[in-house]
Amino acid sequence: MSSPDLLGAMFAEFARLGLVSFGGANLAEMERVLVLQRHWISPQVLANGFALGQVMPGPNLLAVTHYGYAIAGWSGAAVATAAFYGPTAFLSALVAALWYRNRRHPWAVALRNSLLPFGAGVMLASLLVLWRSSVHHWVGAVLATLAFALLWKTRVNAALVIAAAALIGAVIGL
Amino acid sequence: MTDTALARIQGGISPGALFQVFMGVALVGIGGGLPAHARRALVARGWMTDEEFAEVFTLAQLTPGPNAVNLAAMVGVRLSGKTGAVLAVAGILLPGLLTMLAASWVTLGLRDGLPDWLQSALHGAACAAIGVLLTAAIPVVKVGLGIRGGWLIALLTWLALGVLRLDLLPVLLILLGVGLLIHHPRKPEGKPL
């Protein structure tokens, strides 16, 4: 299953997915590539991995490790994780070093003003995709709304909210 | 911004210390809020001022990739050079990586797929995750819409990627071009950030 060809293709795709995530989770592009185009994972694995990522310590997008494992086992998990995080971390460090030298340059300001609204659109697209893949029933919509209200209005830990929603889901058989 | 905090500790932060701090940030950051935890850890140690943190945080949102990991790379390189960047990234990834591998091994290794109750639980968790994503999205959207012409770019991005499901890279290039047309510097000195 985990032939060098597959792992190479995975490295390229996950590196690209990391490099095109602006402002956070780019679930829309992940679904397009991993589910619709490559047929590497099912919509169910996509949604499950994203949910698991929410209750892990660290970045939520550790879902990529889950997707990598689903595609090609241990080596798939390693390749997906390294490809997704490595190049963007390298690029970030490079940008930081350059930024501190040129941060007042007019073109740096123009670039910032152009990228920030794009990042906003990406976040909104990701929300739409996650909604479509996870909410099949009005109970799901209620859970999503309740979770948002709790997190926005109180200081309760997000992992607790997710765990409570998981419990509700298990009990009522969502 | 002044580099007072940086000057104060110049040369005093080892890559190993960064590894430990970012691993701690990951461990308390179950369920998100990593930037907030990182801010607290760095400011409390006097490694960065609030202003310095705000700048590096904005920068981490501008670069592609997961924000928290970018933030670790940027703080790492700023405070402790290349090795600092590598170890900060390793620190923030390691705890989650190990637990996710264990979870994947269990959930994906089941011969008949997930039992119904577990699938239902994950389903519930996924719905709540929408709430988490929304709380993370609101500040990003606010900043994006606060920029001149921002609502148009954000709306077009959402339509292209969310509704029409177009390939991201061409969409980015076109809308980045539109953004630069709107915001290109007119005077040589420009406006300071």
The low-confidence runs of chain A, each spanning 5 or more residues with pLDDT under 50, are none
Largest interface: A-B, 114 and 114 residues
Report the span from N to C terminus of chain B: 11 Å
Q: Sum up the overall morphology of chain B in one term.
A: flat
Describe this structure in words.
The complex is a heterodimer of chains A (174) and B (193). Chain A is an all-alpha fold. Chain A is built from seven helices and no strands. In chain A, helix 1 crosses helix 4 and helix 2 crosses helix 5. The radius of gyration of chain A is 18 Å and the shape is globular. Chain B is mostly helical. At the A-B interface, helix 2, helix 3, helix 4, helix 5 and helix 6 of A face helix 2, helix 4, helix 5, helix 6 and helix 7 of B.
Salient structural properties:
heterodimer; A: 174 residues; mainly alpha; 7 helices; 0% strand; B: 193 residues; 8 helices
Summarize the structure.
The complex is a heterodimer of chains A (174) and B (193). Chain A has 174 residues and is mainly alpha-helical. Chain A has helices at 4-19, 27-37, 43-54, 63-102, 106-134, 138-153, 158-172.
Draw up the topology in text:
The complex is a heterodimer of chains A (about 170) and B (about 190).
Chain A: H1 4-19, H2 27-37, H3 43-54, H4 63-102, H5 106-134, H6 138-153, H7 158-172
Helix pairs in contact in A: 1-4, 2-5, 3-4, 6-7
Chain B: H1 4-8, H2 15-28, H3 34-44, H4 50-62, H5 67-108, H6 116-145, H7 150-163, H8 168-183
Helix pairs in contact in B: 2-3, 2-5, 4-5, 7-8
